[in-house]
Amino acid sequence: MGSQHKRKLSVDDSIVQSTKDKKINSDQSTPISPLKEQTPTVVHNEQEVDVKQKKNTTPIHRGKFKSRWLSKHSSLLKRSRNAQGLLISCVVGSETRALGQAQQFLLEYIAKLFPNRQSTWERLEDDLDVDESFIDESNSGDEQAKKEKGGDEEGKKDKMLEAVDSGCSGLLFLRFRVDVTPTHFIRKLIEHLLSLSSEDREKVISKTSYCSRWIPVDYICNSFEEDISKTFEQVKSDYFVNEGTLHSKIAIVSEIRNNERLKRQDIIKCIAPSLPPTLTVDLKSPDIVIFVSIFKSVCSMSILPKYYELKKYNIPSICK
User: For residue 73, what pLDDT is reported?
Assistant: First the structure.
């Protein structure tokens, strides 16, 4: 009897012990103080909301926006022979909104100031290293796809602008696809804006609130010393041709972004030896500025008159 009683007690003890273990495990799985654990998540969500509210726009250097709306940075070098456009600076983090404002503004004023413009769009067509018989067989299945894309290709030919990835934060590049020189466009645009009344001028400038400097780019090359020297030879033959330009006061202004290989002194060494001897160097009040901008692997070059008088081509500052 005693042994049976002991056995019953041991069995009962094991049951009680297992129930205690289950309670302990259940207690460990459930939060001890749910209020304390929920409060940090609420604060974290509030912080995320604040960060999203502070961001003006989606960053232009990542995501689907870049691949869909921007041409590759290397496309400027493939088409450097006729690549011209505008370098537009903006606040870092607001590139997408600045791009939208700049595109709408330029489409409006290119059509207004240059009504007789013509498209200069060219398609790059390379020879294929494939047997033509294979191409004929494959084309039979792709005819429908070409018909669907036909409208898009025609639309691309009619575009006046092409947004290209600059490879730098706070910097946009819009390439011209029309026979309009960027320096000529900026000169006529500034004359038009200054001819408006103050109220109308403020309305126009409010359309580009995220954009600041509008630098015209007439020449583009690779960011190597040899290419920079060759490009300046072309600039010199195109611009320094009469007595007025040959006896001007000049200065070399360079800006380097996202390129650790080149320094400002390297750019001066590429350009200064080729300058006509009749020119006078004046760094404080030059008549013209040889503006060189290096952004990533691209070098842009242009001749800018009245650079400091026009507030370094800062359109909002000019119109104040």
Answer: 85
